[in-house]
Amino acid sequence: MSHTIREIAQLAGVSKSTVSRVISGKGYIHPETRDAVLKVIEKLQYKPNAVARAMVSQRTHNIGVLIYRREYPIASHPFYGKIVDAILATAARMNYSVFVTTDHEMSLRSADFMLEKRVDGLILISRLQQNVIDYIHNFGIPYVMVNGSTDVDNVVHVVNRDQDGGMMAAEYLTGLGHRRIFVLAGPQTHRSHYLRLHGFRDYLNGNGSPLDPSSLAYPQASTFEQGYEMMRQHWPDFKSGGYTALFATNDMIALGAMKFLIEQSVRIPDQVAVIGFDGIDVASIYTPSLTTIKVDTEAMGRTACTLLDKLIDQQPVNELDIELVPELIIRQST
Amino acid sequence: MSHTIREIAQLAGVSKSTVSRVISGKGYIHPETRDAVLKVIEKLQYKPNAVARAMVSQRTHNIGVLIYRREYPIASHPFYGKIVDAILATAARMNYSVFVTTDHEMSLRSADFMLEKRVDGLILISRLQQNVIDYIHNFGIPYVMVNGSTDVDNVVHVVNRDQDGGMMAAEYLTGLGHRRIFVLAGPQTHRSHYLRLHGFRDYLNGNGSPLDPSSLAYPQASTFEQGYEMMRQHWPDFKSGGYTALFATNDMIALGAMKFLIEQSVRIPDQVAVIGFDGIDVASIYTPSLTTIKVDTEAMGRTACTLLDKLIDQQPVNELDIELVPELIIRQST
DNA sequence: CTGAAAGCGCTTACAG
DNA sequence: CTGAAAGCGCTTACAG
After folding, report:
1. d(CA A309, CA B214)
2. Higher pLDDT among residues A132 and B93, named by residue
3. pTM for the whole thing?
4. How far apart are CA B334 and CA B332, in angstroms?
5. Contacts of B52 in chain A (CB under 8 A)
6. Cα separation of A138 and A144, whole Å?
7. Is residue A84 within 8 Å of residue A301, measured between CB atoms?
């Protein structure tokens, strides 16, 4: 079982204060006293109770990750899961433990959970409801938003340069000689899908070959199933439209569409080149592997952690909007 | 900012004890007093400090999930991530918060982390080092093992019936008429890979068509890359061997091998049928989608949580070895 | 260099 | 039905 500082003190023949001092390393202490105490600690495998420590220091060394997800998956999400992984790794390095929670009910319950637990800070991922954000904001607890859509002033946002990414995709396809490009754009209420489409469109406009509305379809969700379904619905138009390339505003949609194309015996990339966005793992192992604009999820998680730590420490944070640069990854599909 | 029970008491004109009682709902209390207190609580958006509560109740309502992973990913792992998701969902329902940690250094550091945090219990996933397990065991904290390889007595284990799953795969392929089956078996030091192979082999033996050693290859890791690579190495033998089916002891290996086969223009399932094991998401969206023996990861996570809760509550747990039944999912690859 | 005391924010008997 | 007191396991001034 677990021991207390009191037992250690008794066994070492000193006071609790002394034990506390040798553990914290603060204040002077006689070497012999220290050794005696250390010996007892070692023997009893004593570990200071973090709860008691948090109580007095008003610091839990816990951070909470709150992800908005209407449904499964949460942690294992191909995109957000990577951010969580990066947070986990960085947090561990900084000696924080992390609570992972989801807010699927769009309620305040999950937020309450964290707030009651007295985490030192929060990382909010994805498009949480405004009321949840306001709620957390009012609590005055430090937090950082990752890939969020909402504009709250004076808050640290970590996002991807989605518009630039859209332009990169357009530039790449255009450079490959493609002139007839079909686009599958996910829900435009999502900041990412919106910006990616706009970047793509802007580039084409600037290039003198604007995107025709008939070359654009909107899957209702950014899922594999919707990508497949949308491609199926637009297949007749696609075939007769002379398209040689497909851009989807995320990998899952691209993959779904690609599956449909393969099933129609379309040769990729010979007949149709396909490019996605996100850079999830599946994209790299698919057959053909998917060319994509990769978001630096590792940096997102890492940066979010680092900044949150600064906020917790009340250190100044000079930049509030951190924008990460995506990268074009060329694979078999183009 | 956050308030204390003291402030609430003062504003409501009662004692701290009374406030505590209306919050906990324990003991009698005059309706008017209750209303007055509740009003103040509501107005101040007061939330009891969970740390202080944990301190006195000796219950944190936190559980820790410790996953063994030599490297990335941790939470986003296609298989373990699903278990984590199920744990997250179940834990939330039971009012537990969950810490997610990994043990990649095979050290005791991650365990210490949890132990100091005073979680009420631990869920250990995958093949943690024996010393880590012993260490945790000695601490006397309740824990449950999921998909672990180690045999510790008197501990709750939640596992998949891997041997049965292997038999199911063999039975299915045999039933389809396949007689020449090639097998890619992941590291045999892993309990799962070992049992899956044995179940498969046992069935074939019982069926009078034992597996020839030349029909068996061992990828060094249970990864996509290794599956691809092993298939590539054995391709000459495979081609000349008249094989009509391939069984891999997990989906990632199967997928990697399948990619290689597709690249050789092998038609799946017409020329070669492929079956994996695990039931990860990628398997269902691949082209062709992969037939597999699906492990009930949802039940694993859920069961682990439920049992851990019982252990924490000191309730009797009648069964120590929980074995989940896998399911054959037939898809395009067979 | 060391110890006694107060306090972090709660809950839990114990009186009344 | 309600309040005062003790205590959960630590840390932090304050004396000495």
Report:
1. 56
2. B93
3. 0.94
4. 6
5. 55
6. 14
7. yes
H helices of chain B, where? 5-12, 16-24, 31-44, 50-57, 80-93, 109-117, 130-139, 162-175, 191-206, 224-233, 235-240, 251-263, 281-285, 297-312
Find all residues with CB under 8 Å of B244, minimum gap 6, and list them.
B178, B179, B180, B181, B271, B272, B273
Tokens of B161: 């019936």
Q: What stretches of A94-160 show up as alpha helix (H) in DSSP?
A: 109-117, 130-139
Instruction: Return the closest-CA partner of residue B73 out of A326, A77, A285.
Output: A77
Decide: CB of A61 under 7 A of nucleic strand D: no
CA distances from B292 to B162, B201, B297 (A): 13, 17, 14
Domains A5-48 and A162-294 fall in the same CATH topology: no
Nucleotide nearest the Cα atom of A32 (by C1')? C1
Q: Is B207's CB less than 7 Å from nucleic acid strand C?
A: no
For the domain covering B5-48, report its CATH number. Answer: 1.10.260.40
Question: What is the layout of strands, in order, in the sheet containing A291-294?
Answer: A216-217, A181-184, A245-248, A273-278, A291-294, A327-329
pLDDT tens-digit readout, B153-183? 788 999 999 999 999 999 999 999 999 999 9
Crossing angle of the two packed helices A251-263 and A224-233, in degrees rounded to 10: 50
Please write the tens of the pLDDT for every residue from B216-243.
999 999 999 999 999 999 999 999 999 9
Q: Does B52 touch chain A (CB under 8 A)?
A: yes
Please report how many Cα atoms fall inside a 13 Å half-sphere around the Cα of residue A145, on the Cβ side: 25
Assigned token pair, A132: 């949840």
Q: What is the CATH number of domain A162-294?
A: 3.40.50.2300
Joined tokens for residue A219 = 């899957």
Q: Which residues pair with B274 in a beta bridge?
A: B246
For chain A, the straight-line distance linking the first and the last C-alpha, in angstroms and rounded, comes to 60
Domain positions in chain B are 5-48, 62-159+298-324, 162-294
Q: What is the homologous superfamily of the domain A62-159+298-324 according to CATH?
A: Response regulator (3.40.50.2300)
Whether residue A253 is predicted with pLDDT greater than 90 in this model: the reply is: yes
Q: Do B97 and A101 lie within an 8 Å CB cutoff?
A: yes
A102, A69 contact by CB (below 8 A): yes
